[in-house]
Amino acid sequence: HALHPEQRDGLFAALARREIRFGRWLMMRLDALSPGAVLGQPGAQERHNLATGRDFVEIRMQGTAARGTERRQFRTMALDMANRYLPSVQVLKNRGATDFRALLPSAAGTLTPGRVKELAGMLDKDQRRLEVTDARRRELKLLVDEHLAGSATYDGSDEVRLAMTRILMHRYANRTQHLMPSLFETFDPDPKTPIKVNAGILDAARLHLHHAYKRPLHFGVDDLCDASNENAEIFLQFSGALVARMETRAIRNQSPALTASMQEGALVEK
User: Fold this and answer.
1) Where is 235: in which H helix or E strand?
2) What is the pLDDT of residues 172-213, one digit of tens each?
């Protein structure tokens, strides 16, 4: 929004016409657009022969469009494209491997028992350092178990539960650190803002495990579609890298299905 309109349009066109390897974000305020563009009037803004949906996706941070619905629609469309393409790969067709979702399992795999024990030990140390009672820890663990039991997540392994509990423990300590301890009873106050578990806690736990233990983070068809930023060309590029790995494994008489670590390795290399 700090650019002259002609400069902004030139930057927009240059970015859109470059080779697409990953999505590029161009964020601006609505006051950078013309009134007609804000109101969505046809032809109100010059797009330099660029097509909405093919070359760029317009996302309004304040709007009525449901992004979740758009993502689900793209996932369905992208999966259909992939399933139509797989039979053209003769090696995979001979193996009967024509279901793209089945070839990209959503199981992250588990850490070794030694790693899980190490993570549990870190949780015990944090509990002592933060002076969290056993009863409070059991309550936080119950919140994690209830959330995972009631959600459609595919990632509810022991290490994820431990990491989520550790995050909640630190969150509890931050919300009660300003309270004065009692001299006559066990100090176990309830925070003013109740501790809740949501999808953000699960994502934070998975991200922590990825950085601390190299646990795969990007795997499965849904993650692949979301990483494509609703762009069919990017999806096909990512899918092509994965299919090449599948084909190589099939030629070597191995299962063409890719584990989570194989999927992430192919995507990072791409």
Assistant:
1) helix 232-251
2) 999 888 766 655 456 677 888 899 999 899 999 999 999 999
3-class secondary-structure state, position 181: coil
Q: What's the length of the chain?
A: 270
Spatial distance between the Cα atoms of 243 and 166, rounded to a whole number of angstroms: 38
Q: Give the relative orientation of helices 113-130 and 158-176 as an angle to the nearest 10 degrees.
A: 10
pTM: 0.70
Q: Are residues 49 and 101 in the same domain?
A: no
Domain hosting residue 264, numbered range: 73-107+219-269
* Tokens 């009873």 belong to residue: 185
DSSP 3-state of 41: coil
Same domain (yes/no): 173, 147: yes
Q: Give residue-wise pLDDT tens across range 138-157.
A: 999 999 999 998 887 667 78
Residue 50 tokens read as 């660029």
Query: How distant, in Å, are the alpha carbons of 35, 63, 69, 247 from that of 66?
Result: 23, 8, 5, 37
- CB 256, CB 100: distance < 8 Å: no
Q: Sign of the C-alpha dihedral, residues 73, 107, 224, 101?
A: negative
What are the distances in angstroms from CA 255 to CA 154, 232, 237, 264?
A: 22, 27, 22, 17
